[in-house]
Amino acid sequence: MIKFRAGLNQDMRYCVLLRGPDLPEPARLAPVLAGHLKQPLYDAAKRSRDAWGIVAEDSDEAPAKALAKALEDGGFPCLVLPANLVEELPSPESAAAMEFDADGLALVNKAGERSLVLWSRVAMIAAAAFKEITAKKVKTGGPSLIAKAASLGLMAAGIPIRIGGKKGETEKVVETSELVYYLDLFERKPVRRFRVDAQDFNYACLGGRMKYAATDNFRSLVEDIASRAGRASLNRGARVLVKGEPVSAMGYDSLANLERESRWLMTLASLSDP
After folding, report:
1. 273 near 127, Cβ under 8 Å?
2. pTM as predicted
3. Peptide bond before residue 24 is cis, with ω within 30 degrees of 0
């Protein structure tokens, strides 16, 4: 079982979790939250998108139970748990490459160190894709390329004259977005987590199935692991890939969403263990 959070004081705190195994669409959950919490639908929609199975954390007992009742009445089975029973995740160990065989897989980090995991010990396959936005400052305006070339020519001839100057040059922030992919593999007790950052991963393990498109390679990787690790559960992202659905159907905005969903799923799995 994953390490539980120890209580920090005598006041017990509570969490409200959906029973699963599937996540409801945020558009269905938001009206229930808006009605119970007496907040605008926009705010409730954001809370629904960010829930990923854990609807409330660090709550007093009475509000937690009241929220759970509202969710049940709205058609969303849930449970109330002491906060220290909600699983914490182990820090991820990086996997830059993999090797498959009949019994399991070898996960290789950048230093070349190998961790062997039997297929029967893969507890959960958790995949996510989302758009990552980066911002950088760029200069615009100022002298044209022709003016810059002319200035360089004059300077090379010993004439210190700058044509065009810096007048009109401005600096602005330009944002770009890129679709990024991550995969977390959880090993059974003792629990370990291995993370594939698909932006820095060697797909040679796919052999002849390796393609040029990042989405195709990532989908094939998840399909291969899921087909071999038959006892493993799949998160929403992994199910989308295995079913052949578009990546946009996943719904993740960040790694924080994947972390929260994994905590939820691992908590439900822990509660069902004999």
Report:
1. no
2. 0.82
3. no
